[in-house]
Amino acid sequence: MLCAVNLRIMKLTFGKHKGKTIADLVNEEEYSYIVWLEENVDSVSVDKEVYEYCKNELFVDKIMHEAKMESEHGDWGCRD
Predict the structure, then answer these.
(1) Structural domain includes residue 46
(2) Which of 16, 57, 71, 80 is deepest in the core (most CB within 10 A)?
(3) What is the pLDDT of residue 78?
(4) Angle at 48 between CA 43 and CA 51, to 5 degrees
(5) Is the pLDDT score of 4 beyond 50?
(6) pLDDT class for 71, splitting at 50, 70, 90?
(7) Secondary structure of the chain in HEC code, one letter for each residue
(8) What is the dihedral of CA 56, 60, 66, 70, to 10 degrees?
(9) Confidence (pLDDT) at 1
């Protein structure tokens, strides 16, 4: 299955987001799916800038989640 994905033109031809463009996925904040596509599907090529943006958003989300958990629960789960 070949699927050359362009940010706004080409649509995915498989999976749970079939028929959507990368731009659609960015608008829906499906960052982890975009990163997964780039890293795991050889027939899909995500623009490097978009890929880096999505990876950064995932990192920020993780940091924000960890900060929220820390503020709500303290370090009760810390084993360092």
Answers:
(1) yes
(2) 57
(3) 60
(4) 85
(5) no
(6) confident
(7) CCCCCCCCCCCCCCCCCCCCCHHHHHHCCCHHHHHHHHHHCCCCCCCHHHHHHHHHHHHHHHHHHHHHHHHHHCCCCCCC
(8) 150
(9) 34
Asked whether residue 25 is assigned to any structural domain, the reply reads: yes
CA–CA dist 47, 8 (Å, integer): 11
* Domain assignment of residue 15, given as a range: 1-75
**Could you tell me if residue 80 is inside a domain?**
no
Name the residue type at position 40: N
Q: CA 30, CA 39: separation in Å to the nearest integer?
A: 15
Q: How many domains does the chain have?
A: 1
Confirm whether 15 is domain-assigned. Answer: yes
CA distance linking residue 49 with residue 11, whole number of Å: 18
The single-letter code of the amino acid at 74 is G
In the block, which residue shows the tokens 């360092």?
80
